[in-house]
Amino acid sequence: MVASKNINYFLIDGKSDGRIKCTIQNWTGLFYKVPRTYLDECKNIKAMKKTGIYFLFGKNDDDDEDCVYVGQARIRKNGEGLLGRVQEHIKDSFYFTDAVMLTTQNNIFGPTEISYLENKFTNLAIEADRYNVKNGNEPNPGTVTEEIESELLEFMEYSKLVMGVLGYKIFIPINNKNELVENEDLYLYLSRRDAKTNKEINATCKRSSEGFVVLKGSDFCEIDAD
Predict the structure, then answer these.
(1) Cα separation of 103 and 87, whole Å?
(2) Sheet harboring 29-35: ordered strands across?
(3) For the whole model, what pTM was predicted?
(4) How far is CA 61 from the centre of its chain?
(5) Which of 148, 174, 191, 194 has its CA 20 to 30 A from that of 16?
């Protein structure tokens, strides 16, 4: 049985489409969801000057596909960290609309930990295949001890939970086998005959938390758009 979690939302600007700070009780992780247009207003938030991981969300111009870029930021000599690194991406060709920044309340991330997390988060996003991951190269995973890796994996589980609550199912595959209940009455069978080819079209769907998922082997036909 999965344990219940108490997730706290703080609406920094007092509105749902503004900046959001997100924490979980008894967890050191600290999330900030910031719309692009609010980045300049975050300069006085000390947590955004720390070391951490960031996710930039946007869409492709040509096909409107959901996209994400995963990166890391370290504290620099000028005192800048996460926020400064995210603002550097404003000049990139990839236009992002929202940034989600992850750090810790006690600033425990070092170069090794941050490289490990960047690598893991990037690969998880690629494997889930919900978003077009804009990272050109696979981030260096670094080298961590077994003890540190165990702690980071637990940290990642909490992070995945918060990302989903914030509205980004970046780490959850669309056809998640764990979500597909093995129950015959949750299947949907579709059958029709193509008027042009007289071919019978059959498809099978399975219900999940995403709605009905079309299963492999199903047929399809093109429909003329008027």
Answers:
(1) 16
(2) 7-11, 20-24, 29-35, 96-104, 52-59, 66-73, 132-133
(3) 0.77
(4) 20
(5) 174
**107, 51 contact by CB (below 8 A):** yes
Two structure tokens written together for 109: 């991330």
| Predicted local confidence at residue 1, as pLDDT | 54
Tell me phi and psi for residue 48, to 5 degrees.
-80, 0
Q: What is d(CA 116, CA 194) in angstroms, rounded to the nearest whole number?
A: 51
**Half-sphere exposure in the Cβ direction for 79 (13 Å, CA):** 5
Residue 6: pLDDT over 80: yes
**In one letter, which amino acid is 189?**
Y
Range name among 49-53, 103-107, 213-217 with the lowest pLDDT average: 213-217
Cross-sheet strand order for the sheet of 200-208: 187-193, 200-208, 211-214
Contact (CB, 8 A) for 67 and 59? yes
Residue with the larger pLDDT of the pair 205 and 108: 108
- Cα–chain center distance at 85: 19
Handedness of CA 53, 57, 62, 64 (dihedral sign): positive
DSSP code at position 48: G
For residue 177, the model assigns a pLDDT of 47
Identify the residue whose tokens are 């996710």: 55
Mean pLDDT for 22-27 is 91
Give tens-digit pLDDT for 58-75: 998 777 889 999 999 998
Length of the chain in residues, anyone? Answer: 226
Write out the two tokens for 6: 């108490």
DSSP 8-state secondary structure symbol assigned to residue 92: S
- How crowded is residue 133: how many other Cβ atoms within 10 Å of its Cβ? 20
